[in-house]
Amino acid sequence: MPELPEVETTRRGLLPSLKGQAIAELVLKRRDLRFALPDDFEARIEGRTIADIRRRAKYLLFDLDSGDVLLAHLGMSGSFRVISPADYAPKKHDHVLFYLGNGLLCVFHDPRRFGFMTVFSAAEEASHAFLAHLGPEPLSDAFTPEYLAAQLAKRKGPVKPALMDQKLVVGVGNIYASESLHLSGLNPCISANKSVAHAAQMVEAIRTTLEAALRSGGSTLRDYVGADGTGGYFQHHFHVYERAGDACTRCNSTIETMVQAGRSTYWCPQCQPARAKRKKR
Question: Which pLDDT score, from 0 to 100, does residue 221 have?
Fold first, then answer.
């Protein structure tokens, strides 16, 4: 599922073509995405101008001139692409089409239909069910070592699933939690409340990893593509994720894998030992 770098890359790709543009026509190929589109979706979207596009966690937020907000989630395989209508060749899983005032077409494509959209008033944003529970943005000033330490101190489970909890910090999914812990030198099985002393290095590693992924346009493993139709390439810089059996890029040990909270976890037993003391080589 796209994480913060992929969603932010999509936002940046859409912004030049969509910001300030009216949605001249809205075409719905189907209403049943992950959730059914609201009954008044067309009435609240068509004819409105996109004042800005923001990102919160893994959500895209399109601010409309009416005071409404269009929320979109890419799900597992969703993507937006911007093209000329003259070049548009309909695909089976093109579900929502936005014809823009500048003559361009923005298409939401989602083969697995795990993505979704909804619309609500800006006044509802802070309390909206999709947004109200979210933790701080990892690249913001609110995500400090002190904050992370206080949150981890409350948790007894493994640190890696804790970092993936969107109530603790948003946008860090399976890929970037694994990569950040490798950069931190922390074993993913360490109890969250026993990793408090390492909060500063985890904050730094998370930020460093996400910023590197943003520079690479995110990671494309299966379905993700940006607004221009091209994939990201951060996957070529993975140190541990999906590299089980390969040599660690840092120490040449064999990368191991296991399942935590239903998700595959990858780590280096030498760089990320279960105990603080590393094995002698």
Answer: 45
DSSP-H helix ranges across the chain: 4-18, 41-45, 145-152, 159-163, 174-184, 199-215
How far is residue 40's CA from residue 87's CA, in Å, rounded to a whole number? 30
Return the CATH fold of 145-267: Helicase, Ruva Protein; domain 3 (1.10.8)
Q: 4-127 falls under which CATH superfamily?
A: MutM-like, N-terminal (3.20.190.10)
Q: What is the pLDDT of residue 277?
A: 45
Q: Is pLDDT above 60 for 219?
A: no
pTM: 0.89
Q: Where are the domains of the chain?
A: 4-127, 145-267
* Residues classed as catalytic: 2-3, 58, 263
The pLDDT-based confidence of 6 (bands split at 50, 70, 90) is confident
